[in-house]
What does this fold into?
Amino acid sequence: MGNQEWKKTKGIVEVSKASELQLSKETIYKYLRANDYERVGPGMYVSPNDFVDELLVLHKRCPGGVISHDEALYHHGLIDREPMMHTITVYSGYNAARLKKSGYKIYYVNRDLLELGKQSVTDQFGNKIPMYNLERTIVDLVRNRSNFEMQDFNMALKTYARMSARNLAALSEYAKAFRVEKILRGYLEVLL
It folds into this structure.
């Protein structure tokens, strides 16, 4: 069994995909044990020689979720500290017990609001992952302001207010959808 098959999944071996190569699970698991692959999720393994793209692992573990909050703030340059925990938003009712147990921070929204502001971004390893855009990230920040340190909250809002690429129409649309229009306006009136 060669490494070429594994490279198709960006260094992550997914047992379900490897089974599609007409290999028995026993053969696959023997290969993984013999080469000291590390389990990073259910049916997902990485080589000890590869650096793990944790956002890609999170996306593969929860393909219907969207990377959000702290992670999105950092990716968009609104805060300068890398998050301690990776964050993802899923629809209300999604069973995220395994993700929580693995140390991920989970946020829930109504199913019809999950896609609002979703975009595909390239992470630092060159992988495409779903993440909320700048405006949705600001709305999430305001909606969950009690979960953020005041320093990060203020820095993110000030940085957004100084950005030339901001889209105030989209921000207003998202704020209406999440019913935080008045609260957000109060913060932005001071900054803009």
